[in-house]
């Protein structure tokens, strides 16, 4: 039987404690987002078609104005052919670079040479997805993503499929970092809070229904 994906709006309405969620595109605006230097978001990012966030040009990385500790983030996404993007979280500044853990978003089929820690839903360059195959919609169609960070543990889902379930401390985590591009960033991924960031990798990308709620359970 073919699985049916509910529209994200229906998924959010079905969640418990609906009032705890914040719409990060409230009012069909980008008021809750900024460039990393604090400036307003430019024309490269635009709200279109009744609430779809479209990265249509070089808009730069944009981050939430607020900082988040433990949280749950629901969102829908799609990319163009050969598209590459991602959502970073617990973002903080390391010297002059703004870095964080990344939920990878990619046209997986266009990059058969990549290992699975670089494909959609992975914890980019750090942890392989649990699933051998990703329940990913065809390129250009919508997918439902979810990130949950709670008590030092991060989880990623793609279309209801658990992809990542990883503790962000201990020897196992340190070995993942040591074997990644972040090996020279002391304590990478172990910070307890940071911003949520939508990246710009020079690929046309669309987001909609971006909802976040604070979990407040780190301590």
Structural write-up:
The protein is mostly beta strands and 219 residues long. The chain has a single domain (34-214), classed as Jelly Rolls (Sandwich), CATH 2.60.120. Helices cover 7% and strands 37% of the residues. The protein contains 2 helices and 13 strands; from the N terminus they run H-E-E-E-E-E-E-E-E-E-E-E-H-E-E. The protein has helices spanning 8-14, 170-178, and strands at residues 22-23, 33-35, 45-48, 52-55, 62-64, 71-79, 84-94, 97-106, 143-150, 153-158, 161-167, 195-198, 205-214. The strands form 2 sheets. Strands 1, 3, 4, 6, 9, 10, 11 and 13 form an 8-stranded antiparallel sheet that branches. A hairpin with a 2-residue loop joins strand 9 (143-150) and strand 10. The longest helix has 9 residues, at 170-178. The protein is globular. It starts with 7 loop residues before the first helix and ends in a 5-residue tail after the last strand. The model is unreliable at 1-6 (pLDDT under 50).
Describe the secondary structure blueprint for this structure.
Blueprint: H1 8-14, E1 22-23, E2 33-35, E3 45-48, E4 52-55, E5 62-64, E6 71-79, E7 84-94, E8 97-106, E9 143-150, E10 153-158, E11 161-167, H2 170-178, E12 195-198, E13 205-214
Antiparallel strand pairs: 1-13, 2-5, 3-4, 4-13, 5-12, 6-9, 6-13, 7-8, 7-12, 9-10, 10-11
């Amino acid at each position: 039987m073919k699985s049916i994906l509910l529209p994200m709006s229906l998924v959010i309405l079905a969640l418990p404690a609906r009032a705890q969620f914040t719409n990060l595109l409230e009012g069909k605006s980008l008021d809750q987002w900024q460039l990393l230097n604090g400036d307003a978001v430019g024309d490269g990012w635009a709200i279109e078609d009744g609430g779809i966030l479209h990265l249509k040009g070089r808009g730069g990385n944009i981050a939430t104005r607020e900082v988040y500790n433990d949280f749950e983030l629901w969102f829908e996404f799609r990319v163009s052919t050969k598209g590459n993007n991602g959502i970073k979280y617990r973002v903080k500044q390391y010297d002059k670079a703004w870095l964080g853990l990344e939920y990878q978003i990619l046209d997986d089929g266009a990059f058969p040479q990549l290992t699975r820690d670089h494909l959609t839903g992975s914890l980019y360059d750090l942890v392989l997805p649990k699933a051998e195959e990703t329940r990913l919609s065809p390129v250009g169609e919508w997918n439902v993503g979810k990130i949950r960070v709670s008590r030092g543990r991060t989880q990623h889902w793609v279309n209801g499929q658990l992809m990542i379930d990883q503790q962000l401390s201990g020897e196992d985590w340190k070995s993942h970092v040591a074997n990644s591009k972040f090996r020279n960033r002391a304590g990478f991924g172990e910070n307890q809070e940071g911003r949520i960031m939508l990246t710009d990798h020079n690929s046309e990308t669309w987001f909609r229904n971006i909802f976040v709620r604070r979990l407040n359970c780190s301590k």
